[in-house]
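User: quick one - fold this with zinc ion bound?
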Amino acid sequence: MKAALEDWLVLDAAAPSTDEPLRTFLDGAALGDLRLPFCTNGHPLDFDQGRCEQDGSSDPPVWESVPSQATVIASIVMHRIEKTFVKALVPYPVIEVELVSGHRLYVSTDREPALSYQTGDEVKLTFVSVGETRIPRIQVEEHNENRSGQ
Ligand SMILES: [Zn+2]
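Assistant: Sure. Structure tokens for the protein plus zinc ion:
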């Protein structure tokens, strides 16, 4: 297993709680595996979503590994310095992505990006280490390579 980069952006204090509903997700992330919840009919669910919006089922979610490819839905750049959780001293992106599984996540990048992200950009998620956990981030390298010919 590849070692995850230490995060450039947030302090260890920002590590997510390893209690449910994130425990299964974080256990997967620790192995470099993106695991997300689905309803029993295969619709993507949010972490804490008790009832599927598409079919009304409220059975316990089924967790499955999903591909790390995603599309950018929205992207903003944060200029606020929040010293409790953020160690980056430069503006940083907060990006909503939709995975090919249909799940939507808010993520940032695994390092300071050279370019800004646009709606519709194809990206790949990786993980960075924050405290004892690993959290998903957009892999910047591939993004920049994809644009290098333009
Ligand atoms: Zn469903």
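One thing worth noting: The longest strand covers residues 69-78.
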